Amino acid sequence: MSSMMRALVYEGPRQMNVRNVPVPSLGEREVLIRVERVGICGSELGGFLGHNSLRVPPLVMGHEFSGVVAEVGAGATKFRQGDRVTVNPLGTCGECEDCRAGNEQLCQSRSLLGAHAPGAFAEYVAVPERDIHPIPDSVSFDQAAFAEPFACAVHLCRLLSLKREDRLLVLGAGPIGLFALAAARTLGLENIVVADLNADRLRIAAELGGIPARGDEEIEALKPAEGFHAAVDAVGAASTRLRCVQSVRRGGRIGLTGLHEADTTLPINSIIREELKLFGAFAYSRSDFETALRWIGEGRIDLLPWTEHRPLEDGQSSFEKLVSGPGAIAKIMLCPNP
Length: 338
Known about the structure:
Mean pLDDT: 95
Structural class: alpha/beta
Order of helices and strands: EEEHEEEHEEEHHEHEHEHEHEHEHEHE
Helix content: 25-40%
């Protein structure tokens, strides 16, 4: 193996360049993975635009990925060269109160591959053995790379305690909104309104079993008389957060996962009087990740018809495409090792 590799490096706002960088050296309990597929996440789009404080240039991003074990550290014993794997990129201590309670996403020492350490927009990435999951032959590299964003949706739906009879509103038909729709459908919900301004994304939502709504008037027309039992904001704008509050019934649950705007004014007195329950949803627990991977293996989610593949060299143009207008593309997967 060469000592150098190609990597897509974030070097400043709207600046992504392929560079030759050293192949990561392995710690004792680390594994080197040859990256086959790596998806572009919405949070990385914020980083690309210079709006995300976690992503400081120069940085190799990328945390939604799958690949093949290329090398194992001296103390890594669970995987062998050639194994097909995906990775939980959220590193945690495993020892604190939150980790012991199964709430690893709240760990004070949490770190994200591709933000706090070099990520998978590269030919190779080094990861701790404990964060690696094998993928069966029946699951493609594309499907396995969906495990991380789908885990976010699994976690969100778990926080909302969704029941089969619930009527749900999802604001935003980007990847997380679409995955939230898929997770809710897996839980048995049938009445799910998905709102977005992008007609192409709404067509995807409809094909996944959602009821499309474009704009506030259509949301109001589809809203139950007493309001939705639960709502998801997968955008993160002041208007969408307020729309969630205005759309749920008394005692309704709201999941806030979009990070577009840092601060929002909400009608707190109404929230108090209506006893609304607001949940911030960041990342996922280890069990959420395992559930997401299991559901993918069971064929519960399929965004492949709306997934586009591009080589690593098209990284800059891929980010620009997703920022300016993705059309009917739900996810762009980069292929560092075509």
